[in-house]
Amino acid sequence: MAVRFVIFSDLDATLLDHETYGFQPARPVLKKLKKMGIPVVLCTSKTRSETEAIATKLGLNHPFIVENGGAIFIPEGYFADSLFKKAGISIVNKGKYRLIQLGTPYPRLRSIFKAIREAVGIRMLGFGDLNADEIAAISGLGQKQAELARKREYDEPFFLEGSPEFELIEKKRKSGQSRINEKAFFERPAESEFCKTGRRVTSIIDGKGARPDQNTLLSKIKPIARRYGLRITAGGRFYHLTGDNDKGRAVRRLKKLYRLQQGKIIAIGLGDSANDWPMLKVVDLPVLVARPDGRHLKIPGKRKDLLRTTRPGSEGWAQAVNFFLSSRVSSIRTGRATAGRINK
Ligand SMILES: [Mg+2]
Protein backbone atom coordinates (compact mmCIF):
# COMPACT_ATOMS: atom_id res chain seq x y z
CA MET A 1 0.00 0.00 0.00
CA ALA A 2 1.25 3.47 -0.81
CA VAL A 3 2.43 5.36 2.20
CA ARG A 4 0.57 8.57 2.76
CA PHE A 5 2.26 11.64 4.11
CA VAL A 6 0.60 14.09 6.48
CA ILE A 7 2.53 17.31 7.06
CA PHE A 8 2.33 19.16 10.38
CA SER A 9 3.85 22.60 10.14
CA ASP A 10 4.61 25.58 12.31
CA LEU A 11 4.04 28.98 10.67
CA ASP A 12 6.31 31.77 11.92
CA ALA A 13 9.88 31.37 10.65
CA THR A 14 8.98 27.92 9.31
CA LEU A 15 6.38 28.04 6.53
CA LEU A 16 6.31 31.84 6.72
CA ASP A 17 9.29 34.17 6.54
CA HIS A 18 10.33 35.45 9.98
CA GLU A 19 10.37 39.11 8.98
CA THR A 20 7.91 39.49 6.11
CA TYR A 21 5.51 36.60 6.90
CA GLY A 22 5.64 35.78 3.15
CA PHE A 23 5.74 32.22 1.76
CA GLN A 24 6.73 32.69 -1.88
CA PRO A 25 9.46 30.00 -1.93
CA ALA A 26 6.97 27.40 -0.64
CA ARG A 27 4.28 28.15 -3.22
CA PRO A 28 5.27 25.55 -5.88
CA VAL A 29 5.59 22.82 -3.22
CA LEU A 30 2.21 23.68 -1.72
CA LYS A 31 0.72 23.38 -5.19
CA LYS A 32 2.37 19.99 -5.65
CA LEU A 33 1.10 18.77 -2.28
CA LYS A 34 -2.43 19.83 -3.14
CA LYS A 35 -2.25 17.90 -6.40
CA MET A 36 -0.96 14.84 -4.56
CA GLY A 37 -3.66 15.12 -1.90
CA ILE A 38 -1.13 15.43 0.93
CA PRO A 39 -2.62 17.34 3.86
CA VAL A 40 -0.74 20.29 5.36
CA VAL A 41 -1.91 20.80 8.94
CA LEU A 42 -0.89 24.19 10.35
CA CYS A 43 0.33 23.92 13.93
CA THR A 44 1.03 27.33 15.38
CA SER A 45 0.96 29.62 18.39
CA LYS A 46 -1.22 31.98 16.40
CA THR A 47 -4.92 32.48 17.10
CA ARG A 48 -7.77 30.86 15.25
CA SER A 49 -8.55 34.12 13.40
CA GLU A 50 -4.96 34.56 12.26
CA THR A 51 -4.57 30.93 11.25
CA GLU A 52 -7.84 30.91 9.33
CA ALA A 53 -6.74 33.94 7.32
CA ILE A 54 -3.35 32.35 6.55
CA ALA A 55 -4.87 28.97 5.64
CA THR A 56 -7.08 30.74 3.12
CA LYS A 57 -4.06 32.52 1.64
CA LEU A 58 -2.18 29.22 1.43
CA GLY A 59 -5.18 27.53 -0.19
CA LEU A 60 -5.49 24.96 2.60
CA ASN A 61 -8.71 23.35 3.77
CA HIS A 62 -7.39 20.94 6.38
CA PRO A 63 -7.57 20.83 10.19
CA PHE A 64 -5.38 23.35 11.99
CA ILE A 65 -3.91 23.54 15.47
CA VAL A 66 -3.90 26.95 17.17
CA GLU A 67 -2.34 28.63 20.20
CA ASN A 68 0.33 26.03 20.93
CA GLY A 69 -2.01 23.06 20.90
CA GLY A 70 -4.82 24.83 22.77
CA ALA A 71 -7.38 23.72 20.21
CA ILE A 72 -7.77 21.82 16.95
CA PHE A 73 -10.22 23.13 14.37
CA ILE A 74 -11.42 20.48 11.92
CA PRO A 75 -13.59 21.46 8.94
CA GLU A 76 -17.03 19.91 9.24
CA GLY A 77 -17.24 16.61 7.34
CA TYR A 78 -13.42 16.28 7.07
CA PHE A 79 -13.51 13.22 9.32
CA ALA A 80 -16.71 11.18 9.74
CA ASP A 81 -18.27 11.92 13.15
CA SER A 82 -18.08 8.21 13.97
CA LEU A 83 -14.27 8.45 13.73
CA PHE A 84 -14.07 10.78 16.73
CA LYS A 85 -16.02 8.27 18.78
CA LYS A 86 -13.81 5.45 17.63
CA ALA A 87 -10.73 7.46 18.59
CA GLY A 88 -12.22 8.34 21.98
CA ILE A 89 -11.91 12.05 21.23
CA SER A 90 -14.61 14.43 22.38
CA ILE A 91 -15.56 17.28 20.11
CA VAL A 92 -17.63 20.43 20.21
CA ASN A 93 -19.54 21.73 17.23
CA LYS A 94 -18.40 25.26 16.52
CA GLY A 95 -19.82 26.84 13.37
CA LYS A 96 -18.30 25.13 10.35
CA TYR A 97 -15.81 23.23 12.53
CA ARG A 98 -15.54 20.29 14.84
CA LEU A 99 -13.47 21.61 17.71
CA ILE A 100 -11.15 19.62 19.96
CA GLN A 101 -10.34 21.71 23.03
CA LEU A 102 -7.14 20.93 24.89
CA GLY A 103 -6.16 24.26 26.42
CA THR A 104 -7.00 26.46 29.39
CA PRO A 105 -9.43 29.28 28.57
CA TYR A 106 -7.77 32.66 28.06
CA PRO A 107 -9.52 34.58 30.90
CA ARG A 108 -8.02 32.11 33.38
CA LEU A 109 -4.57 32.43 31.79
CA ARG A 110 -4.79 36.21 32.07
CA SER A 111 -5.75 36.22 35.72
CA ILE A 112 -2.90 33.80 36.54
CA PHE A 113 -0.51 35.87 34.42
CA LYS A 114 -1.35 38.91 36.57
CA ALA A 115 -0.97 36.88 39.77
CA ILE A 116 2.48 35.65 38.65
CA ARG A 117 3.53 39.19 37.78
CA GLU A 118 2.59 40.37 41.22
CA ALA A 119 4.18 37.42 43.00
CA VAL A 120 7.60 37.65 41.31
CA GLY A 121 7.83 41.42 41.04
CA ILE A 122 9.21 41.15 37.52
CA ARG A 123 7.86 43.54 34.96
CA MET A 124 6.31 41.53 32.15
CA LEU A 125 3.83 42.31 29.43
CA GLY A 126 1.38 39.96 27.74
CA PHE A 127 -0.68 40.50 24.62
CA GLY A 128 -3.63 41.24 26.92
CA ASP A 129 -1.77 44.36 28.12
CA LEU A 130 -1.17 45.67 24.61
CA ASN A 131 -3.24 47.35 21.97
CA ALA A 132 -3.09 46.30 18.33
CA ASP A 133 -0.68 49.10 17.48
CA GLU A 134 1.76 47.87 20.11
CA ILE A 135 1.44 44.24 18.97
CA ALA A 136 2.14 45.41 15.42
CA ALA A 137 5.26 47.25 16.63
CA ILE A 138 6.84 44.30 18.41
CA SER A 139 5.84 41.57 15.96
CA GLY A 140 6.19 43.25 12.58
CA LEU A 141 2.59 42.28 11.81
CA GLY A 142 0.34 44.68 9.94
CA GLN A 143 -2.39 46.49 11.89
CA LYS A 144 -5.12 44.12 10.67
CA GLN A 145 -3.14 40.98 11.52
CA ALA A 146 -2.28 42.45 14.91
CA GLU A 147 -6.00 42.80 15.63
CA LEU A 148 -6.43 39.09 14.83
CA ALA A 149 -3.41 38.22 17.00
CA ARG A 150 -5.16 39.83 19.99
CA LYS A 151 -8.16 37.49 19.76
CA ARG A 152 -6.64 34.95 22.07
CA GLU A 153 -8.45 31.89 23.44
CA TYR A 154 -5.83 29.49 24.89
CA ASP A 155 -2.35 31.10 24.99
CA GLU A 156 -0.87 34.31 26.38
CA PRO A 157 2.31 35.39 24.56
CA PHE A 158 4.50 37.58 26.74
CA PHE A 159 7.92 39.14 27.16
CA LEU A 160 9.97 40.37 30.09
CA GLU A 161 11.73 43.49 31.27
CA GLY A 162 15.09 43.78 29.59
CA SER A 163 13.89 42.33 26.31
CA PRO A 164 13.92 44.55 23.21
CA GLU A 165 10.15 44.19 22.99
CA PHE A 166 9.63 45.42 26.55
CA GLU A 167 11.94 48.39 26.07
CA LEU A 168 10.28 49.33 22.82
CA ILE A 169 6.82 49.37 24.41
CA GLU A 170 8.10 51.35 27.39
CA LYS A 171 9.68 53.90 25.13
CA LYS A 172 6.55 54.21 23.01
CA ARG A 173 4.38 54.69 26.08
CA LYS A 174 6.71 57.21 27.70
CA SER A 175 7.20 59.26 24.58
CA GLY A 176 3.48 59.22 23.82
CA GLN A 177 4.35 58.54 20.21
CA SER A 178 1.92 56.21 18.54
CA ARG A 179 4.63 55.12 16.14
CA ILE A 180 8.36 55.30 16.42
CA ASN A 181 10.72 53.77 13.94
CA GLU A 182 10.60 50.15 15.07
CA LYS A 183 12.84 49.00 12.26
CA ALA A 184 15.69 51.11 13.63
CA PHE A 185 15.10 49.49 16.99
CA PHE A 186 15.78 45.93 15.95
CA GLU A 187 18.50 44.19 14.07
CA ARG A 188 19.18 40.61 13.10
CA PRO A 189 20.52 38.68 16.07
CA ALA A 190 24.11 38.12 16.81
CA GLU A 191 24.88 35.18 19.07
CA SER A 192 23.08 36.27 22.20
CA GLU A 193 20.56 35.49 24.87
CA PHE A 194 18.14 37.31 22.68
CA CYS A 195 18.44 34.89 19.80
CA LYS A 196 15.12 33.43 20.81
CA THR A 197 13.37 36.64 19.86
CA GLY A 198 15.15 36.70 16.53
CA ARG A 199 15.78 40.39 17.00
CA ARG A 200 18.07 42.51 19.06
CA VAL A 201 18.16 46.08 20.19
CA THR A 202 20.77 48.23 18.51
CA SER A 203 20.83 51.51 20.29
CA ILE A 204 19.02 51.65 23.58
CA ILE A 205 21.66 50.37 25.95
CA ASP A 206 22.35 53.58 27.77
CA GLY A 207 25.13 52.65 30.10
CA LYS A 208 22.88 52.17 33.10
CA GLY A 209 24.04 48.59 33.40
CA ALA A 210 23.36 45.29 31.75
CA ARG A 211 19.78 44.33 31.13
CA PRO A 212 18.42 41.48 33.25
CA ASP A 213 19.19 38.01 31.98
CA GLN A 214 16.02 36.57 30.50
CA ASN A 215 16.77 33.01 31.54
CA THR A 216 17.30 34.05 35.17
CA LEU A 217 14.00 35.92 35.20
CA LEU A 218 12.25 33.00 33.56
CA SER A 219 13.58 30.54 36.12
CA LYS A 220 11.76 32.57 38.79
CA ILE A 221 8.51 32.63 36.85
CA LYS A 222 8.32 29.02 35.71
CA PRO A 223 7.82 27.35 39.12
CA ILE A 224 4.95 29.68 39.96
CA ALA A 225 3.27 28.95 36.63
CA ARG A 226 3.69 25.24 37.36
CA ARG A 227 2.03 25.67 40.75
CA TYR A 228 -1.03 26.94 38.89
CA GLY A 229 -0.87 23.93 36.56
CA LEU A 230 0.32 26.06 33.65
CA ARG A 231 3.45 25.93 31.53
CA ILE A 232 5.75 28.34 29.79
CA THR A 233 7.46 27.68 26.45
CA ALA A 234 9.64 29.75 24.18
CA GLY A 235 8.43 30.54 20.68
CA GLY A 236 10.43 32.24 17.96
CA ARG A 237 9.61 35.73 19.28
CA PHE A 238 7.81 35.46 22.61
CA TYR A 239 7.35 33.27 25.64
CA HIS A 240 3.96 31.60 25.92
CA LEU A 241 1.85 30.89 28.98
CA THR A 242 -0.51 27.98 28.32
CA GLY A 243 -2.41 25.25 30.08
CA ASP A 244 -1.23 21.67 30.14
CA ASN A 245 -1.26 21.50 26.35
CA ASP A 246 1.37 21.57 23.65
CA LYS A 247 1.71 21.07 19.93
CA GLY A 248 2.62 17.41 20.36
CA ARG A 249 -0.53 16.44 22.21
CA ALA A 250 -2.63 18.03 19.49
CA VAL A 251 -0.62 16.38 16.71
CA ARG A 252 -1.02 12.96 18.36
CA ARG A 253 -4.80 13.29 18.27
CA LEU A 254 -4.85 14.22 14.60
CA LYS A 255 -2.42 11.42 13.75
CA LYS A 256 -4.84 9.00 15.35
CA LEU A 257 -7.75 10.36 13.32
CA TYR A 258 -5.78 10.24 10.06
CA ARG A 259 -4.68 6.69 10.82
CA LEU A 260 -8.25 5.59 11.40
CA GLN A 261 -9.30 7.28 8.18
CA GLN A 262 -6.40 6.38 5.89
CA GLY A 263 -4.49 3.48 7.39
CA LYS A 264 -0.74 3.81 7.64
CA ILE A 265 0.51 7.37 7.47
CA ILE A 266 3.94 8.99 7.73
CA ALA A 267 3.82 12.22 9.69
CA ILE A 268 6.29 14.94 8.72
CA GLY A 269 6.76 17.76 11.25
CA LEU A 270 8.46 21.10 10.60
CA GLY A 271 9.29 23.80 13.13
CA ASP A 272 12.02 26.19 14.24
CA SER A 273 11.61 26.81 17.98
CA ALA A 274 11.48 25.19 21.41
CA ASN A 275 7.68 25.18 21.39
CA ASP A 276 7.84 23.00 18.27
CA TRP A 277 9.79 20.29 20.05
CA PRO A 278 6.71 18.44 21.42
CA MET A 279 5.47 18.23 17.82
CA LEU A 280 8.85 17.15 16.43
CA LYS A 281 8.99 14.45 19.08
CA VAL A 282 5.79 12.72 17.96
CA VAL A 283 6.17 12.78 14.16
CA ASP A 284 7.95 10.20 12.01
CA LEU A 285 10.11 12.69 10.11
CA PRO A 286 11.07 15.73 12.20
CA VAL A 287 12.57 18.83 10.55
CA LEU A 288 14.21 21.77 12.28
CA VAL A 289 14.14 24.79 9.99
CA ALA A 290 17.09 27.21 10.15
CA ARG A 291 16.60 30.71 11.58
CA PRO A 292 17.12 33.78 9.39
CA ASP A 293 20.83 33.85 10.28
CA GLY A 294 21.27 30.21 9.19
CA ARG A 295 21.65 28.87 12.72
CA HIS A 296 19.28 26.47 14.43
CA LEU A 297 17.59 27.36 17.69
CA LYS A 298 18.22 25.23 20.71
CA ILE A 299 15.41 22.77 21.28
CA PRO A 300 14.80 21.02 24.58
CA GLY A 301 15.42 17.45 23.40
CA LYS A 302 17.34 15.28 20.96
CA ARG A 303 16.41 13.03 18.08
CA LYS A 304 19.04 11.29 16.06
CA ASP A 305 16.90 11.44 12.95
CA LEU A 306 16.22 15.19 13.14
CA LEU A 307 16.71 16.77 9.75
CA ARG A 308 18.10 20.34 9.74
CA THR A 309 17.53 22.62 6.78
CA THR A 310 20.32 24.90 5.64
CA ARG A 311 17.89 27.53 4.36
CA PRO A 312 15.62 29.56 6.68
CA GLY A 313 11.84 29.97 6.75
CA SER A 314 9.76 29.01 3.76
CA GLU A 315 12.88 28.30 1.69
CA GLY A 316 13.97 25.71 4.25
CA TRP A 317 10.42 24.38 4.45
CA ALA A 318 10.32 23.86 0.69
CA GLN A 319 13.80 22.33 0.77
CA ALA A 320 12.76 19.72 3.33
CA VAL A 321 9.39 18.84 1.82
CA ASN A 322 10.92 18.51 -1.65
CA PHE A 323 13.55 16.25 -0.15
CA PHE A 324 10.87 13.92 1.22
CA LEU A 325 8.89 14.01 -2.00
CA SER A 326 11.95 13.22 -4.09
CA SER A 327 13.23 9.79 -5.03
CA ARG A 328 14.80 9.49 -1.61
CA VAL A 329 11.35 8.77 -0.31
CA SER A 330 12.00 5.13 -1.10
CA SER A 331 14.67 5.09 1.59
CA ILE A 332 12.23 6.61 4.07
CA ARG A 333 9.76 3.87 3.31
CA THR A 334 12.26 1.27 4.24
CA GLY A 335 12.94 3.11 7.45
CA ARG A 336 16.52 4.16 6.79
CA ALA A 337 17.73 7.19 8.67
CA THR A 338 17.23 10.55 7.04
CA ALA A 339 19.04 12.57 9.62
CA GLY A 340 21.58 15.25 8.93
CA ARG A 341 21.59 18.40 6.93
CA ILE A 342 20.12 18.99 3.54
CA ASN A 343 22.91 20.39 1.46
CA LYS A 344 21.36 21.13 -1.84
MG1 LIG B 1 8.15 29.37 14.60
How would you portray this structure in words?
The chain is of the alpha/beta class and about 350 residues long. The chain has two domains: about 5-105 and about 245-340, HAD superfamily/HAD-like (Rossmann fold); about 105-240, Putative mannosyl-3-phosphoglycerate phosphatase, domain 2 (Threonyl-tRNA Synthetase, Chain A, domain 2), CATH 3.30.980.20. The chain is built from 13 helices and 16 strands. The chain has helices spanning about 25-35, 50-60, 80-85, 105-120, 130-140, 145-150, 165-175, 180-185, 215-225, 245-260, 275-280, 315-325, 330-335; strands at about 5-10, 40-45, 65, 70-75, 90-95, 95-100, 125, 155-160, 185, 200, 230-235, 240, 265-270, 285-290, 305-310, 340. The strands form three sheets. The chain has a ten-stranded mixed sheet, sandwiched between helices. It has a four-stranded antiparallel sheet with strand order 7-8-12-11, with helices on one face. It has a two-stranded antiparallel ribbon with strand order 9-10. Helix 5 (about 130-140) crosses helix 6. The longest helix is centred in the C-terminal third of the chain and has 16 residues, at about 245-260. It is globular, with a radius of gyration of 20 Å. The two termini are about 30 Å apart. It binds magnesium ion. Magnesium ion binds near residues 12 and 273.
Task: Give a topology summary.
Elements (H helix, E strand, L loop, with lengths): L3 E6 L17 H10 L3 E4 L4 H11 L5 E3 L4 E5 L5 H7 L4 E3 L2 E5 L4 H15 L3 E3 L5 H8 L3 H7 L5 E6 L3 H12 L6 H4 E2 L12 E2 L12 H14 L3 E4 L4 E4 L4 H16 L2 E7 L5 H6 L2 E6 L16 E6 H13 L3 H5 L6 E2 L3
Parallel strand pairs: 1-2, 1-13, 2-3, 13-14, 14-15, 15-16
Antiparallel strand pairs: 3-4, 4-6, 5-6, 7-8, 8-12, 9-10, 11-12
Helix pairs in contact: 3-10, 4-9, 5-6
The structure holds magnesium ion.
